[in-house]
Amino acid sequence: MKKIFTLMLMVLGALTAHAGATFYANNVRVETYQGVGGTVYVENTQSGQTTQPATSVDVEAVTGVYQLFAGAIPADGWQFLGWSFAQAGEDGALAYTGSIDETDSYINIPEANGFEGEDSLKVVGMIPLEPNVRLYALFTHVKAISDEKTGFLGNVEVDKPVNDLGQNVTLTATADTETDPTAKFLYWVKQSTGEKITTNPLTLSVNGIETYVAHFDSENKIVLNFPAEGGYQFWTPSTIVANGQLPEEVSSIYFTLSDSINSATTNRETTLERGTTNYASYSGVPYLLYGQGDVTVYMSQDVAEPETFDFHYTPVSLQLSELSNLYAYYVVNLEKHQHELVYGVIPARSYYQAFPIENFVKAKPVEVMPWDEQSITSAIRNISTRQSLKSGAAYNLRGQRESGKGIVIVDGKKVIR
User: Using CB atoms within 10 A as the burial measure, which of 26, 177, 189, 357 is most buried?
Assistant: First the structure.
C-alpha cells in the first residue's frame, strides 16, 4: 500500500491561530474497490497539498472542518459509479458494504476525532494507528441514474452495480407511488445514442461504458408559460405544493435590502439586492419567477419544512394607515421590473413587499428600486448548507453536480459550504 503523505505538521501554525476552533485528527484510507477501474487522490485544502493518483491512499492530517476531500479518476474503458463508506464488521474490520453513499467524483471526507481548543498539538496524539475512516471508490461499465427533472418520482437500481465486460446486468426503475400516487415510469434513455427504451426491468449485456437514464412522469404537474426571450411572472401554488426544487430553467426570485443601506447618505446609495432560490414552493405563497419558454413543474406533497417568504398578495386595496408603520411598503411592477414605494394605499390585486424602516438609517426609502439583470453575479463567499439552497445549481471543481459540502461552483464562482 502506497502512503502518499503523512501528518502535515506545517498546517499546525495556522490551526493554532484560531482560538476556540475545532481541529480534526484524520486517519483516512481511500482506495479503489478491488483495485480496478481507476485511481483515487486526496486533497487537503488547509495545506494546499494533493496526493498523486493511486489505487490506495492513506492520509494522516490535522485539519479544520470541511478541508479534506477525495477524488476519483476512472481508467480508460471505465466510468465512476460512486463512493461507499466502509463499516466495521463483527471482527471490527472496516469493509465495503455494497452501498453507494455518494455519486459525485469529488467529495468531502467526514472528519473524525474532533478536538475543540487552541492546542492543535494535542490533536496530533489523537490519530490512531489504524485508519478510522475508509472510503471506497467504485468504478463500473454500465450504470443507471434517474432523470434530474423527474428523478424524485422514482428510483433505479442495478443488480450488479460494479459490473465488467461480458456480464449480463438488469436495470430496474421503480416509481415512488408513496410520494405521488400518480407517479409512473416512462422510459429509459440510452445516454450515448438518445434511444428510448420502455422495457422495465431491462436486462442487457455489458459491452462497454454506458449510462441509462430513467424518466418518470406524474399527473401532478403544471406548465408555466414564460416569454420565449425570458420574462417574469408571479405564481401562487394551489393546495398541492411543488416539489422540493424548481427546474433549473426557472429562477425563484427573492429580494432583500443590501447591508450597504445602513451607511447610505443619499437615496442613490440605497439599493435592492436580488438572488435566486430553487427551494420548495408552498401552498398559498406567492413566488416571483423568471424563466424562458414553457417549463414543466412537477408537484408533490413530500417537501421540507417551509421557509419564510416576504412577497405578499392582496386582492383588495390596503390602507397604509391600517398597516404597521415599522415598514416601508413597495408594490412590484412586473412590466417595469422594479419596486415602487407606496403612498397611502396599496392597490387591489397587487404583489408587494414590506421592508423594515430601521434599515433606512440616513436615507429615506427611495421611490423606485429597479431590479438588476437576470444574470446574477455571485462573489466568492462562504455559505452555509442552508444558504446554499438559495443559490443556483452547484457543481464540483470537475464540473459534476454537487450536493454535499466543500468547494463548489455556484453561478460561475467558487464558494465554500
Answer: 26
> 391-394 — which CB contacts under 8 Å span 24+ positions?
391/275, 391/276, 391/277, 391/415, 392/248, 392/251, 392/276, 392/278, 393/248, 393/278
- The DSSP secondary structure of 81-130, one letter per residue, reads EEEEE-EE-TTS-EE--S---B-SSEEEPPP-SEEESS-THHHHTT--SS
- Note the pLDDT of residue 411: 43
pLDDT digits (tens, 9 = 90+) for 134-158: 899 999 999 999 998 888 889 999 9
CB of 263 closer than 8 Å to CB of 361: yes
Q: What are phi and psi of 328, to 5 degrees?
A: -100, 130
The position carrying cell 494533493 is 50
Is the per-residue pLDDT at 247 higher than 70? Answer: yes
Chain-centroid distance of CA 45 in Å reads: 20
Q: Is 387 helix (H, G, I), strand (E, B) or coil?
A: helix
Taking only the tens place, the pLDDT of each residue in 358-384 is 777 666 788 888 876 543 322 222 222
386 φ/ψ sector (left φ>0, alpha ψ -120 to 50, else beta):
alpha
Q: Which tens digits make up the pLDDT trace of 288-335?
A: 888 899 988 877 655 544 455 578 999 999 999 999 998 999 999 998
Give CB contacts under 8 A, 24+ apart, made by 187-190.
187/215, 188/144, 188/212, 188/213, 188/214, 188/215, 189/147, 189/213, 189/215
Per-residue cell: 85: 463508506
